[in-house]
């Protein structure tokens, strides 16, 4: 009888030790997030000791963690296939469930939840990127993504930076075409404030500065030339606007010289009150005298012609006439 009791005791002790080992293995597997393996170990232990409360309770907790992790995997599948709404709904449900759990066995589920939240946030931003066409809008999303961790966030951040850079570059390029270099520099600087290491923008900024300098130099030369031309034009308007295009002198039956002719305004501004001094010389070149004449109409626009006539009395012979000077006023 004693031997039988000893055998029974030893056998039960062995089972207890085996169950304890299985329990410890299950606990470690669950902490490592290997919930399926943990459940199998616990089921094996329960088959040997079905009434152990600790085993029953741990199996319930592990099963809950396993179920939540499966939901996380479902959420991951939804996100990968673009079903953001379904994924978001699952994530919210798991998040709510975890608020009621404090056991260490749920640590891996919490980590998975955190990762899925990041993935969801990244995918939401990524979906919105395609519709954004302004630096300001992209900068707002860049701010959102910069607060997230993980390779997915880094990839989307690069995508945003690339698009932001492209928009800044194209906008600045159009401004340069319009010679609005100040605005172009502001556009590039705005882009660089969000993407300071973008070589495309830093290089283009240097190019804008070179073009700006060249344009300003050419503009200075153009202004100088324009000023010179304006000065020459003003001088011509003041000293060479009146051109005599016709001049005749006829001796009438009374011995008086009838002088007439036409002038043209060759200047670039209207002139008025045009007065001419006309010299009279004999056909042999001897000086006879001079007279003045006024042009009509009083005002001549650019390219317009005017008429003048006057008399020099008591010549009694044919004579040569010439305009020695002319005066006028500029409008």
Secondary structure elements and their pairing?
Layout: H1 2-31, H2 35-48, H3 53-80, H4 84-98, H5 107-129, H6 135-146, H7 151-177, H8 181-194, H9 199-239, E1 242-251, E2 257-265, E3 271-282, E4 287-294, E5 299-300, E6 305-312, E7 319-330
Antiparallel strand pairs: 1-2, 2-6, 3-4, 3-5, 3-7
Helix pairs in contact: 1-2, 2-3, 3-4, 3-5, 4-5, 5-6, 5-7, 6-7, 7-8, 7-9, 8-9
Keywords: Coiled coil
InterPro entries: TPR-like_helical_dom_sf
Coiled coil: 201-238
**Structural class of the secondary elements?**
alpha+beta
> Helices and strands, in N-to-C order?
HHHHHHHHHEEEEEEE
CATH class of the largest domain: Mainly Alpha
- Based on the structure given, which CATH architecture of the largest domain is correct? Alpha Horseshoe
What's the story with the biggest beta sheet? 4 strands, antiparallel
User: What value does the Rg take, in angstroms?
Assistant: 51 Å
Count of all domains: 3
Distance between the termini: 143 Å
Instruction: Quote the average pLDDT.
Output: 85
CATH topology of the largest domain: Serine Threonine Protein Phosphatase 5, Tetratricopeptide repeat
Q: Categorize the overall geometry.
A: rod-shaped
Q: Could you characterize what this model shows?
A:
It is a single chain. The chain is 62% helix and 18% strand. It contains nine helices and seven strands; from the N terminus they run αααααααααβββββββ. The strands form two sheets. Strands 3, 4, 5 and 7 form a four-stranded antiparallel beta sheet that branches. The chain has three domains: 128 residues, Alpha Horseshoe (Serine Threonine Protein Phosphatase 5, Tetratricopeptide repeat), CATH 1.25.40; 98 residues, no CATH class; 90 residues, Immunoglobulin-like (Sandwich), CATH 2.60.40.10. The protein is rod-shaped and about 165 Å long. The relative contact order is 0.06. Helix 8 runs antiparallel to helix 9. It starts with a helix and ends with a strand. By secondary structure, it is of the alpha+beta class.
């Amino acid at each position: 009888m004693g031997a039988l009791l000893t055998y029974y005791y030893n056998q039960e002790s062995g089972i207890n030790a085996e169950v304890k080992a299985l329990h410890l293995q299950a606990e470690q597997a669950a902490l490592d997030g290997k919930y399926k393996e943990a459940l199998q170990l616990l089921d094996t232990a329960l088959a040997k000791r079905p009434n152990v409360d600790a085993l029953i309770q741990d199996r319930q907790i592990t099963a809950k963690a396993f179920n939540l992790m499966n939901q996380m995997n479902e959420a991951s599948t939804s996100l990968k296939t673009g079903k953001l709404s379904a994924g978001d709904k699952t994530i919210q449900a798991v998040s709510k469930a975890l608020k009621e759990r404090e056991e260490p066995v749920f640590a891996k589920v919490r980590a998975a939840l955190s990762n899925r939240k990041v993935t969801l946030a990244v995918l939401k931003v990524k979906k919105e990127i395609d519709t954004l066409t302004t630096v300001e809008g992209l900068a707002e999303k860049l701010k959102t993504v910069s607060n997230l961790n993980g390779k997915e966030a880094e990839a989307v951040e690069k995508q945003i930076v690339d698009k932001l850079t492209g928009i800044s570059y194209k906008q600045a390029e159009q401004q340069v075409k319009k010679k609005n270099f100040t605005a172009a520099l502001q556009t590039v600087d705005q882009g660089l404030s969000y993407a300071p290491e973008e070589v495309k923008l830093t290089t283009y900024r240097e190019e804008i500065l070179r073009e700006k300098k060249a344009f300003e130099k050419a503009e200075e030369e153009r202004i100088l030339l324009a000023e010179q031309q304006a000065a020459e034009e003003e001088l011509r308007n003041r000293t060479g606007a009146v051109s005599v295009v016709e001049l005749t002198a006829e001796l009438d039956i009374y011995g008086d010289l009838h002088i007439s002719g036409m002038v043209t305004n060759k200047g670039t501004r209207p002139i008025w009150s045009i007065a001419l001094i006309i010299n009279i010389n004999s056909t042999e070149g001897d000086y006879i005298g001079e007279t003045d004449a006024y042009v009509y109409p009083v005002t001549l626009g650019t390219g317009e012609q005017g008429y003048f006539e006057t008399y020099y009395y008591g010549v009694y012979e044919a004579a040569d006439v010439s305009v020695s000077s002319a005066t006028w006023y500029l409008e």
